[in-house]
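Please review this pair:
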Amino acid sequence: MRQFDVTTTFETSSEQLWALLQDASLLSKLTSFPKVTLVGDGASVEGNVVQLRIGIGPVSLPWNSVITLAGDRAFCDQGVKLPFPFKRFCHVHRVETREGRAVMIDEVTFDSYLPNVLVERFVLRSMFKSRATAFQNILNS
């Protein structure tokens, strides 16, 4: 298993940032690679199963997660049906206020059929970086 955190600060309120995180349908708009499509309900409430389709070229693969924990400005999505190369995936989303700004903390724990360090570096880190840029664009619009 490999664990890493991504912390991103935004010039907005934590309430506004938290509101954006409450709907998984936003993933379709925020993620340019891979292409993400929400199938069904995307509410980030405990017990909900979030079903996604991950498109890589002409192939579309399922990514299903269950929201296993939801609390005060935090929730966890636990992968239950994952595309290659993932064996396990757990993502805790948290929003905090620091020095008057909203801070999004992503705590990711995963295991892969490929070397975890390579998946983190070449897939996940770039995905989270582009997602942060997309969040900033939405908040600035």
